[in-house]
Amino acid sequence: MEVLGVSFSFSSPPTSSTDIKPPALFLSVYLRQSRGFISLYISSRFSSTSDGLSANPQKGGILRYLSNRFYDIETIVDITQKLKRWKMEKQNKHDVALHQRYGDDIGAALFVLKLKGSIRFQDQMDWYGENPKEKESIDLLDYHGKSLEAIDLSGSVISYLGLKNLVNLKALKHLNLTRCPFIDDWCLGLLHPFAGTLQSLSLAGCSRVTEKGLACLHHLENLQRLDVSNLPSVPHRLLIRILLEEMLPRCYIVGMDDSENTDFPTEQEKQRISWTPSKIST
Predict the structure, then answer these.
(1) Which residue in 217, 220, 208 sits closest to 241, CA to CA?
(2) 237: closest CA among 271, 267, 208, 214?
């Protein structure tokens, strides 16, 4: 980059999660790179005696103060986004050692609680979730040997990577993924291990789910209730609801009714989104 006749070179930011450095070092590198450019810009902008710093020293002092502390706003935003993704991937990490030590049910329960979700074990009537206001906490080892039957991860940062902590559950009946921002079509392709046990599933408000991902649910033959309300990425919702009802005839479909239907597909679009089990892949 060349600014005011001076050339600058900036190293490329990390492009994958594996390249992300620890937060302190990551922030330091970017700030050092951007500080020189901002300082030079401010100096050149207010170096003139006619309308620059000498004309309004207070204004120049404020801008110089800001440049010394905030540097490049775009860089800060970029760093923030990468740190959020780094934190999300860390939270969704599949802890193989934990599952091997305590078993898949206890390991999955610990993962759900880490994401501030709720759980319910076999023969348990009440839901349990980590609540910092409660002095007493559940001892999960008391449930060793019992199956984890219900999971509520609504509003959490569960992702494709995190779902791998759940796929070995043998008796999961209820799964709530309402308003999970990272649940997408790829995630729905991971639910086939629950084909023989899952009875209720909520995908309400998952903005990344499309009709292609919903087609993967044909494996869930024992599903009794499916909530697919408020899916903005799914077009022609009334038609999709009809297809879901044909694909899962014993399942009660919530959402995608007349109140959510805002458009009607053309004949060509109907053919494009028609589903047959032989054409569905996960």
Answers:
(1) 217
(2) 214
- Are the CB atoms for 100 and 143 separated by under 8 Å? no
H or E segment to which residue 244 belongs: helix 237-247
- Let me know: does 240 contact 263? Beta carbons within 8 Å: no
Report the amino acid identity of residue 195: A
Using CA atoms, how far apart are residues 48 and 164, in angstroms rounded to an integer? Answer: 61
CB 147 within 8 A of CB 105: yes
- State the first-to-last Cα distance of the chain, in angstroms, to the nearest integer: 45
Q: Which amino acid is at 280?
A: I
Question: Could you list the pLDDT tens digit for every one of the 282 residues in the chain?
Answer: 444 444 444 444 444 444 444 555 555 555 555 555 555 454 555 444 444 444 455 556 666 666 666 666 677 777 888 888 888 889 999 888 888 888 999 999 999 999 999 999 998 888 988 765 554 456 777 888 899 999 999 999 999 999 999 999 999 999 999 999 999 999 999 999 999 999 999 999 999 999 999 999 999 999 999 999 999 999 989 999 999 999 999 999 999 876 655 444 455 544 544 454 434 333
Sheet holding 148-152, edge to edge: 128-129, 118-121, 148-152, 174-176, 200-202, 225-227, 252-254
175: which strand partners? 151, 201
Place of tokens 């860089």: 75
**Alpha carbon of 246 to those of 100, 175, 261, 274: distances in Å?**
40, 22, 18, 11
Give the closest residue to 104 by CA, choosing from 152, 177, 112, 197: 112
User: CA torsion sign, 173 to 219 to 208 to 114?
Assistant: positive
Strand partners, 280: none
Angle among Cα 210, 148, 191 to the nearest 5 degrees reads 25
